[in-house]
Specification:
By secondary structure, this protein is α/β, with parallel strands linked by helices. Mean pLDDT is 89; it is low at 127-138 and 489-498. Belongs to the helicase family. DinG subfamily.
Length: 812
């Protein structure tokens, strides 16, 4: 039987995408029409049809199959019923470029044929203006009746169409459609069998430890109930308290009880994915048979995208991709566990693109792990994640989501971006029209740097001033995309290959943001000179966009060690309008013994930007006092790379040799080297990193690996254009603008950094916050309840406190 008690439903588009695609994977980098462009194209074509034609005809039919019923539904673009003529079904596909190119796409014809079948067998009465005499009394066409099936491609650039019409009997359409439905339901049956195994294993799964940590069971119960009741949940729990297992275990149980159909686990830092995968692996060892899929970034997982030397057009994994896909899909379903490594190995065997294959499998996994941008980003979010039942959406390290989402709804266009196109795109095409439109785009961007005829280094503009720039960007992209649909001879083809997408991406994102601009956006134009202009679209409040995605999920669960102050996160996560029935907020204190953590506020070092150079002697003395207080490894977090470099230049070479330093351009591999250097250090080590990055969060070190953490500065960002605009925006909203734009996000970075130490009941460690501002009254409400900070006004006072702590003496 198919999964669940309800009759499964599939759209015509999704059905044929699964069963009817063949041949090569489409070329990368060329953008097709947007949804808005496609809709506009259909509306334009509808106006040209005779009034007797029908448009957007809803049809559906429920099939009885050996594996159970399946309902197929959709909307026919155009239908014609005329006396003396065959009924006609027209499927329209919009494109940017030659409408005759790739006209015989098997998927498009399959979609048109299925619509022809549905017209003849629709479970619903057709529109009243269809004359009953043309059909049987039940709107069903006899088997030997003929239908004309037309496929039309509409070039949105030039408003040209190309059509082809084929005639089929209802019997022929029935045979083909039922064949495809049989293939699809056979697959659904296999998915249902896998699902039954997942459910049974989840129902029988026991907690993987003899007993819960304090509060873990209470958290698990809250999570399960919120999933069951479709209630949103915010969870704040200290680092090291077992949050990941406290969240994942009840989610698995919810899958087992069918209180949830799917879990979409989103990370805001790439390194966090390994944490949840390790947790689920642990549950797997205790009997869980979950179908899991990890979606990795295309730049990381796709061999062609990761290689500078290979042309995507010639990638052997692209050629014949859809012909090899079915066997790979079957094997993937039998494997169940599809993390990045498993996908890479499977795709190597079947010669498939790992990234594209992971998207193919996303609809069928019980649990999907991926970056938050695949759900929230308006440009790259994955529609496949919205297929089927609404998922329970989990956001790890949710305190990062506001900044991440603001970045997703922000964009910029610079003179440098346009110069890149002039250098690397235009020469390969030699198109006079393209050159003309590029010059126009450059000119319009440069004109934004002038206000009332006067050159301005920086100005804030209303969005209405960008209309000409949006038009110029769209016109340039249109002519580039049109050129890319044409075959290119010889050397020009290789020049115009794999890398072009990276040059067009800033323009595409900038143009896409046009559809999302709202009152919480500003436009800032900065210019060093006339031909060095930067136009920024800055999102100041991601809350409305995060809130908009809640309706696409069963429930949303966000958790972090840092969700204070509450109003700041409620506003920035779009939850301020949720009442207690819709949102549950759970804040847990630390259960680790308070005497195991020493928190000291050092006031004798002035870390303010203008005082940093002169602060170095006192800062070095403070660092040495901490390191000398107890033998072991320490983490030192600096507010910026610039300040870090100033410090490192003053550290003696012999001492510096024992320090591990975060590289400025850090990768995940660099992060792993950083962690291993701490764990495997043969001598006491000071590891130096910058607050707010992957080295300050999700840096899981084994118990006892660290003696302490030093945090230099308040973590506040620089008073740049964006942060100043944020301050002004939130002040206008009736909030404390400085708190929302500087203090609160800065202190979140501090708490995250401090959370790297004392991660188990047996750990003891020192947290040293180096900045006199921490003693100001505005910071006191921000301290976690389990912190009991003391103030050290001198290096000597710090030494005394740390000595007493390590000797288990009480210092007040």
């Amino acid at each position: 039987m198919l999964p669940g008690n309800k009759v499964p439903r599939v759209s015509v588009g999704n059905l044929v995408a699964f069963v009817a695609r063949s041949g090569d994977l489409g070329a990368g980098g060329t953008a097709g029409p947007t949804a808005q462009q496609g809709t506009a194209g259909h509306q334009w074509l509808a106006k040209k049809k005779p009034k007797s034609w029908l448009s957007e005809v809803s049809v559906k039919h429920t099939f009885d199959t050996p594996h159970g019923p399946l309902q197929v539904a959709g909307r026919i673009d155009f239908a014609r019923f005329s006396a003396g003529k065959n009924p006609l079904v027209e499927e329209v596909k919009t494109c940017l470029g030659d409408p005759q190119q790739d006209f015989g796409a098997s998927e498009h014809w399959a979609q048109a044929l299925v619509y022809g079948y549905l017209l003849a067998h629709s479970d619903e009465r057709l529109a009243e203006n269809v004359k009953p005499a043309l059909l049987t009394e039940h709107d069903l066409l006899p088997a030997q009746s003929q239908l004309d099936i037309r496929l039309t491609r509409l070039d949105l650039l030039n408003r040209k169409t190309h059509s082809e019409t084929r005639t089929h009997t209802v019997a022929e359409l029935t045979e083909k459609t039922q064949q495809w439905v049989a293939q699809y339901t056979a697959w659904l049956h296999l998915v249902a069998q896998q699902r039954e195994k997942s459910i049974a294993s989840a129902q029988g799964l026991a907690f993987p430890y003899p007993e819960y940590r304090p509060q873990q069971q209470a958290v698990a119960r809250h999570v399960f109930r919120c999933v069951r009741d479709a209630r949103h949940l915010l969870l704040e729990a200290p680092t090291g308290s077992g949050k990941t297992l406290s969240v994942c275990f009840p989610l698995v149980k919810a899958l087992g009880e069918q209180a949830a159909n799917k879990v979409l686990y989103l990370t805001t830092k790439g390194s966090s994915q390994q944490v949840v995968l390790a947790c689920l692996t642990q549950l797997q060892k205790h009997g869980l048979a979950l179908s899991l899929l990890q979606i990795s970034a295309k730049s990381k997982s796709c061999p062609c995208a990761a290689s500078d030397g290979e042309n995507y057009q010639d990638c052997p994994r692209r050629v014949g991709y859809y012909d090899r896909l079915p066997k790979a899909r079957q094997e993937a379903l039998s494997l169940g566990w599809l993390d990045e490594k498993a996908i890479q190995q499977l795709c190597l065997r079947h010669r498939l693109c790992p990234f594209e294959f992971s998207l193919e499998m996303a609809a069928w996994a019980d649990w999907v792990v991926g970056d938050a941008n695949y759900w929230y980003d308006p440009v790259i979010r994955l529609a496949v994640l919205e297929q089927g039942a609404k998922p329970a959406v989990v956001v790890d390290e949710v305190h990062n989501l506001p900044d991440r989402t603001r970045a997703m709804f922000s964009a910029q266009l610079t003179s440098f971006d346009l110069q890149q196109i002039a250098d690397f795109v235009l020469p390969s095409l030699q198109s006079p029209l393209m050159v003309k439109r590029h010059k126009k785009c450059t000119r319009v961007l440069s004109q934004l740097a002038f206000s009332a005829g006067q050159f301005s280094f920086e100005q804030t503009l209303p969005a209405s001033r960008l209309a000409d720039l949006f038009t110029a960007v769209e016109e340039l992209l249109v002519v580039i995309d049109e050129a890319r649909t044409q075959p290119l001879p010889g050397v020009m083809d290789s020049l115009f290959g794999n890398d072009i997408g990276q040059y067009l991406q800033p323009l595409r994102r900038f143009l896409a943001l046009q559809n999302y601009l709202a009152e919480h956006h500003i436009c800032v134009v900065t210019a060093e000179r006339k031909n060095a202009v930067q136009c920024q679209l800055i999102c100041l409040n991601a809350g409305p966009y995060i809130a908009a995605r809640r309706s696409d999920s069963q429930m949303q669960l966000g958790y972090s060690a840092t969700l204070n102050p509450a109003n700041y996160y409620l506003d920035n996560l779009g939850l301020s309008d949720c009442d207690s029935d819709a949102l549950h907020w759970l804040q847990l204190p630390s259960y680790f013994p308070a005497q195991h953590r020493s928190v000291t506020l050092v006031t004798c070092v002035n870390t303010r930007w203008q005082n940093r150079a002169e602060s170095l002697p006192q800062l070095i003395a403070t660092i040495n006092a901490v390191v000398d207080s107890a033998r072991g490894n320490y983490l030192l977090f600096m507010p910026s790379f610039e300040y870090m470099d100033l410090l490192l230049n003053q550290i003696p070479a012999e001492q510096r040799r024992l320090w591990v330093v975060q590289p400025q351009a850090s990768s995940e591999a660099d992060r792993q080297v950083f962690v291993e250097a701490i764990i495997n250090a043969s001598q006491p080590t000071v590891a130096v990193a910058v607050m707010g990055g992957v080295f300050g969060e999700a840096l899981d070190l084994p118990s006892g690996a660290l003696r302490g953490v030093m945090v230099v500065g308040t973590g506040m960002g620089q008073p740049n254009v964006t942060n100043k605009a944020l301050q002004q925006y939130w002040q206008q909203q009736g909030r404390d603008g400085f708190d929302y734009s500087f203090r609160a996000p800065g202190f979140t970075r501090v708490v995250q950094a401090a959370g790297r130490v004392v991660r188990s009941e047996s750990d003891r460690g020192a947290v040293v916050l180096i900045d006199d501002r921490f003693t100001h009254s505005v910071y006191q409400p921000l301290f976690p309840p389990h912190w009991q900070p003391a103030v050290a006004n001198s290096v000597e006072a710090l030494q005394t406190r740390l000595h007493a702590f390590w000797q288990d003496k009480t210092v007040t």
